[in-house]
Amino acid sequence: xxxxxxxxxxxxxxxxxxxxxxxxxxxxxxxxxxxxxxxxxxxxxxxxxxxxxxxxxxxxxxxxxxxxxxxxxxxxxxxxxxxxxxxxxxxxxxxxxxxxxxxxxxxxxxxxxxxxxxxxxxxxxxxxxxxxxxxxxxxxxxxxxxxxxxxxxxx
Length: 155
Prior knowledge:
By secondary structure, this protein is an alpha+beta fold.
């Protein structure tokens, strides 16, 4: 019997949401998936293991320090399914001891909420309530922001 992949649609939904939110939270540009847990054929699995792939590492990482943490890992599980393995628990404990925040989320929406709250904490610590105000606009004038760079200044 083939195993149903219930996590992939959740991961795709999360990263689709992230792609829409980068304009609000620029740091999300660096949020990434760590593809350690997928099933692979034995040859590919052996090759990746030799290249340093480790089991138990959480699915995603946001390399942004906030709330005394060095960054945020999220282990994404399918809603109402998916258990944290013994090895994942070991890795999560280690990462937490090293100063990372680690969350296990069942579904993409709880993961989205964790990301938003974590980034809000990041901005609060820096005295900003407007995330987009922290991003410099590469010196372009207010009028030219909506024009392609090559057209800026021409009317």
